[in-house]
Specification:
Helices cover 74% and strands 0% of the residues. The protein has 13 helices and no strands. Helix 6 runs antiparallel to helix 7 (197-214), helix 10 runs antiparallel to helix 11 (293-320) and helix 12 packs antiparallel against helix 13. The longest helix has 47 residues, at 114-160. The relative contact order is 0.05. Among the domains are: 143-241, no CATH class; 263-362, Alpha Horseshoe (Serine Threonine Protein Phosphatase 5, Tetratricopeptide repeat).
Length: 369
């Protein structure tokens, strides 16, 4: 007879092995998702992408297949724009990790999307810049603390007399001090190259702290070039940060606001055409002959035409299916971009008249609306 004392151990071992099998796992496996998007949306995009690839492989697609290809392509482009818009909102909340995770996940679904590739590249650039500034602030704080330590060491040496302090302790401190000064000078050089006021302010702090850390070492003959370079950079950044003095003979000129080129490009990349229209109007008003105005305007017009065409098509399909209110909502949203569009005006008027008739028919007999 089998030894029943070993039955529980074999039973537990079998359960553990069963849980490890892929097809018989006792634990639910979550489907991959993206920040801001449900599992169903991700699965739908994956299916649409696969279906589009299959249709694009057809050597001689039928008209129905061509229409299906267009619909899938528009749906995937809309998803890409939504992903960029959501990532922009996460970035505004300083949730850089989720924004990067979202764009990388969206690119896994649509690796050939120029909108997603461009948005991810721009996000990485801004993220690296932000990270460099934060690390520079940390380096400045460490340098300022070392400056306080240097003053404490000096007081201690004066209290105990020369030669009393531990030689190794002083050597380690001087090594940290020199390393901190070198790091601050490197950060300052990168900040000065960016020519932004925030970076200039950080560069001024970094140069001043580095100068204080090096102290009397800058008076040595071998450090003459370094001393002059630090002073030259300090003079330069002070001049850039100094407010301009208006001339007495002439009234001060009104400072023009910077052109919203970056804001316009970001709005176009995220598909926010309302905001893009506002920035484009400002751009045209401030610099009507700017070389970048024409290509950006052409890009905006192309996106606007595609958005209106898609709205007309979607609204017609909803209207033909009896979804009058939904069709009306789609057409009205598109009309905010092109209020002068005759076809949209006609469709909206037709839908509003039909809804009015339907409400009249559904009203109780003898009731006047």
């Amino acid at each position: 007879m089998p030894d029943r004392r070993h039955t529980p151990a074999w039973y537990l071992t079998g359960l553990l092995l069963l849980a490890l099998l892929p097809g018989c796992s006792l634990l639910p496996v979550a489907a991959p998702s993206l920040p801001g998007f449900s599992h169903q949306q991700v699965a739908q995009v994956r299916q649409q992408s696969a279906a589009l690839k299959q249709l694009q492989k057809q050597p001689h697609p039928s008209p129905a297949q061509q229409q299906q290809t267009t619909r899938l392509d528009e749906a995937l482009k809309a998803f890409a724009r939504d992903a960029v818009h959501t990532a922009t909102e996460l970035e505004a909340q300083n949730d850089w990790h989720s924004a990067s995770e979202l764009l990388n996940g969206a690119l896994d679904l649509l690796p050939d999307s120029p909108t997603l590739n461009s948005a991810l590249q721009q996000l990485q650039t801004r993220r690296h810049l932000h990270e460099d500034r934060v690390r520079m602030e940390l380096a400045i704080h460490r340098g300022e603390q070392l400056l306080k330590d240097a003053q404490a060491y000096q007081r201690l040496e004066q209290l105990q007399g020369p030669g009393v302090m531990n030689w190794l302790e002083l050597k380690n401190f001087h090594r940290k001090r020199n390393a901190s000064a070198k790091s601050l000078l490197e950060y300052a050089q990168r900040a000065l190259q960016r020519e932004q006021r925030t970076d200039d302010q950080l560069a001024r702090r970094a140069l001043s702290v580095a100068q204080g850390l090096l102290g009397s070492d800058l008076q040595l003959a071998e450090n003459t070039a370094l001393r002059d370079a630090i002073q030259r950079d300090l003079n330069s950044v002070e001049k850039r940060l100094r407010p301009a003095q208006p001339r007495r003979a002439k009234p001060p000129r009104k400072k023009m606001d910077p052109l919203p080129i970056a804001e316009l490009q970001q709005a176009l990349a995220s598909g926010d055409l309302i905001r893009a229209q506002q920035h484009l109007n400002q751009f045209q008003k401030k610099a009507p002959r700017h070389p970048q105005l024409t290509p950006l305007q052409a890009q905006f017009n192309a996106q606007k035409s595609a958005r209106v065409a898609s709205a007309l098509k979607t609204g017609n399909e909803l209207y033909s299916q009896g979804e009058i209110e939904q069709a009306l909502a789609v057409w009205r949203k598109a009309q905010t971009l092109v209020p002068e569009n005759v076809e949209l005006q006609a469709n909206i008027a037709r839908a509003e008249k039909l809804l009015e008739n339907l409400r009249a028919l559904s009203a109780p007999f003898g009731h006047k609306r």
